[in-house]
Amino acid sequence: MELHFEQVISNIPLLVSGILVTLKFTILSTIAGFVWGTILALIKVSRIKPLAWFGIAYTSIFRGTPLLVQLFLVYFATPQIIGYSIPELQAAVITFGLNSAAYVSEILRGGILAVDKGQREAAMALGVPYNRMMFDIVIPQALKHILPALVNESIALLKDSSLVATIGVMDVLRGAQVIQNVTYLAFEPYIVAAAIYYVLVMILTGFAKQLERRVRQSD
Q1: Of 154, 158, 116, whose CA–CA distance to 137 is shortest?
Q2: Reported CATH class of domain 5-218
Q3: Which residues have CB under 8 Å from 47's CB, separation 6+?
Q4: What DSSP string runs through 112-172?
Q5: Which of 217, 163, 162 is nearest to 193 (CA)?
Q6: pTM of the prediction?
Q7: CA distance linking residue 21 with residue 24, whole number of Å
Q8: pLDDT tens digits, 79-111
């Protein structure tokens, strides 16, 4: 068996541009998922029953259906309904952000409920408004406890980003597919793509460990 990695190296610009797209997609999806997930978590712990039911139903739907099906619904089916064709990367960010929010909301909800109730009761007794109590007292403490889980969700987003190749987004995996089509090689481009994903995950993991260490030191 002969391996021809030199043919992959000659097409390395495709993989480099794919890395940039993958990182851009991961960052945007993580931000969207965290923002919408925080709102969902607050909805779930609210005393307004219809809102809480909406949050529970939303989470059940997005956690109970395959991510790839959700991506196809947003990219292929939505234009049929609204008459507007959504760009590939935009459709991917929307889908992954909505999906990630369901998981982030459960993580954050658990963190909020883990905060001592006495602190909330004390804040309410002092007349602290609900919004200030949640954002100044409860959520900052919850984030310290759930930081590892949030990092794991970001890592999952990074790895699952390979699914966006199915709708034509030129990410790392799509770059490897193009190289395969040009060179008629499969092992070399895909093993390089796997190595790239692994390195990116290790970098993110190292950054997360540094962040966790700083958070612990600040306690």
Answers
A1: 116
A2: mainly alpha
A3: none
A4: HHHS-HHHHHHHHHTT--HHHHIIIIIHHHHHHHHHHHHHHHHHHHHHHGGGGGGGT--SH
A5: 162
A6: 0.88
A7: 5
A8: 899 888 899 999 999 999 999 999 999 999 998
